[in-house]
Each structure stands twice: as C-alpha cells, then as structure tokens.
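Practice problem 4.
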C-alpha cells in the first residue's frame, strides 16, 4: 500500500500551483485583454497561501486565515468568470464571505463553536461555487464542451464540500492537532491540487475560446456601430442569395442613406455624427427580425438583408424604418422638418427571377436609393427597373 508523506505532498502541491500561477503570465502577455488569466494566477497563489497558513500557523489562526484564503480563492475564480462575460468585478460580493468570516472569528461565542465554524465555512464555499457555476452557465461565447467540463467539475466540488461538512459535523472534535498530522490532511491536499489544476486548465481554455470568438466577431463588425461591416455583409449577401436561388426562396435587400449627413457633421461635429449613426443602427436593429442582417455599407450608408422576404413585406419594413427614424426626432437644422431622416432603396429577388446575381440585386437597391434621394429624400423607392410588381403599394408613407 502506497503512503504519501504529508510534508512531501505539501511541497509538491505548492511547487505545482506556483508553477501554474507563473505560467499564466506569458499567456496573459500574449493577449492582455484576457483578465481572467490574471484571476486564475491569483487563485493559484491564494491556494498556495491557504495551504501554507494551515501548515505553519497555530490551530486557531490557521483555521481563521486558511478559510479566509479559501474564500478568496473561490472569489477570484468567480471574478475571473465574470470578466469572461464582460461583467464588472463585484468585489463587494467576493469580499463579503471574508469580512463576515472575520466578524464570526472575532466573536468569542462563535469562534469557540467549531460546529458553527464548519457550517458557516461550508455555506460560504458552496455559495461561491454556485455563483461561479451561474457565470459559466450564462456564457454564450465559450464552447459548450469546455463549459460543461467546468460545470461538472464545480458540481463535483460542491458535492465534496457538502459531504466534508457533514462528515466534520458528525465527528467528535478532540484536541487541536497540526494540519499535517490531521487524518484528512492528505485527501485535502490532493483535492486542492487536482481541482486547481483541472479548473485552471479548463478556465485557460475557456478564456482562449472566448477571446478568439470575440476577435472573430470584431473582425466582422463595424467598430463604431456594432452592426456587420461591409465585408461581412457582402459575404452574407452572396451566401443568402445562393441559398435563395437554390431553394426557390425570396430575398429582399434594403439600402439606407442618412439625408444630408455631411451637413449634420458640419453643424454638430463628428462626435455628434458618430452618435447619430449609432442611434440609427440601433433603430434598424430594433425594427428588423432576429434573422435579418443589418450592415454599415460605408459612411452614413447602411444595408439590410431580409431572407425569405418578398416585395410586399419589404415595403412594410421600409415604411417602418422611415417612421422609426422620424420618431427618433434627432435634430437636424438643415432638413425641412428639422430632424434627421433617411432615404431608402428596396430591391428583391423572387423564385421566378432568371439570370439574376447578388451583385445585380445590390445595384438595383442602390439605384432605388439614388432615386429616393433624387425625388426629395425621406422616402422609400423600389427597384422599378426589374421585377416591379403592379400591385405593390406606394412606397411613400
């Protein structure tokens, strides 16, 4: 039967966790936006300090400081998971168990009640575990397999924490032996070592996955408005067009241009112009369906792709867009009504269309937009030069 020397195991655990903490530094330096990596490094150091305090300090100070460092360990992991979700760090929540634990230990009646200490520390650990599981569950960018791994690992740790509390409460407490001479010292150190390594590796993998996903989304998004950029929009247009032609579906395209936007920038400045474009993009996103795509085509020009949408439905969307922009009531002194307006061009593809291309659809919508601006702006015009439908309602509101 193999027996593990507690002192040797302690040194090995401290060495592995220290190396793991140091190894997080170059990973963070590769992408300094991954703040979660720093919290993982901090958690490894806190785990080391917790073991050292339990091994070197007298019994009662070891319990007080060691448990506080355990709470700090779980709080650091929880904070790291929040940063992965782009949520602010909540130090009040992370520090609350440590502060209340200090109050408990400063009160003689509570400090001398071992069962109460065991129960409170176990409650804090399980609460922090559940909070961290919630953050992992709410993540949407990370791979499901990695998140499932971490959730399973944390669920197992929660069950072990509950069973350990029940076992400690059921045992008779006699004397205050040093940590390394306690019967459960070796299992505790093995648990700390294995759990921290598996957790750290899982969180590093999740952090990299989330970072790569965010970079991928950023490469496809307009930096100012957050909608699709021109390259991503055109790629989506060709993909949806090919799919519509193959499956005999309809497809509509709307081109939008802010009226006299140069005059708006001259009057109010470029920062106000940027704010105006963001407001317009938010209106377009709110007006469209979840499956539609809004893109910034260039400058003050936007485009909206409407899959499975025919002429009448596209007309309804165009009219709704005009009304929604007017309802914003963004002041523009150089417009006739005194507010920001847009011009809209609409084109569509029907299953009956022959020899039509995605580029031709885009050009048709652009010509319709040009006609809307030429006819007075603040209106929607349709691609009358191809596939015009006589029964289509007038585009002007």
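Answer key:
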């Amino acid at each position: 039967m193999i027996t593990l020397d507690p002192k040797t195991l302690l040194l090995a655990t401290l060495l592995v966790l220290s190396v793991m903490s140091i190894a997080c530094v170059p990973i963070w330096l590769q992408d300094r936006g991954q703040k979660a990596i720093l919290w993982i490094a901090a958690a490894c150091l806190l785990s080391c300090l917790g073991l050292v305090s339990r091994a070197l300090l007298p019994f009662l100070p070891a319990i007080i400081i060691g448990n506080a460092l355990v709470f700090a360990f779980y709080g650091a992991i929880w904070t790291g998971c929040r940063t992965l979700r782009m949520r602010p760090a909540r130090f009040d929540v992370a520090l609350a168990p440590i502060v209340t634990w200090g109050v408990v230990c400063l009160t003689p009646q509570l400090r001398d009640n071992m069962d109460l200490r065991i129960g409170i520390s176990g409650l804090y650990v399980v609460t922090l575990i559940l909070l961290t599981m919630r953050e992992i569950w709410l993540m949407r960018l990370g791979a499901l397999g990695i998140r499932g791994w971490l959730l399973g690992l944390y669920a197992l740790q929660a069950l072990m924490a509950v069973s350990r509390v029940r076992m400690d409460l059921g045992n008779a407490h006699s004397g205050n032996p040093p940590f390394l001479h306690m019967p459960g010292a070796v299992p505790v150190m093995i648990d700390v070592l294995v759990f921290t390594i598996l957790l750290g590796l899982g969180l590093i993998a999740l952090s990299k996955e989330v970072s790569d996903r965010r970079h991928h989304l950023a490469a496809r998004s307009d930096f100012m408005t957050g909608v699709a950029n021109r390259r991503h929009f055109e790629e989506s247009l060709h993909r949806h067009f090919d799919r519509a032609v193959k499956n005999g579906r309809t497809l509509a395209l709307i081109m939008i241009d802010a009226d006299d936007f140069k005059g708006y920038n001259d009057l109010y400045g470029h920062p106000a112009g940027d704010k105006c474009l963001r407001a317009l993009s938010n209106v377009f996103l709110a007006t469209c369906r979840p499956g539609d795509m809004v893109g910034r085509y260039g400058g003050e020009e936007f485009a909206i792709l409407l899959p499975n949408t025919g002429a009448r439905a596209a007309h309804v969307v165009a009219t709704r867009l005009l009304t929604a922009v007017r309802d914003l009531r963004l002041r523009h002194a150089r417009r006739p009504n005194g507010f920001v307006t847009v011009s809209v061009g609409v084109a569509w593809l029907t299953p009956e269309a022959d020899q039509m291309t995605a580029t031709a659809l885009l050009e048709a919508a652009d010509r319709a937009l040009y006609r809307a601006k030429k006819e007075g702006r603040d209106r929607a015009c349709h691609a009358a030069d191809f596939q015009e439908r006589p029964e289509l309602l007038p585009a002007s509101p």
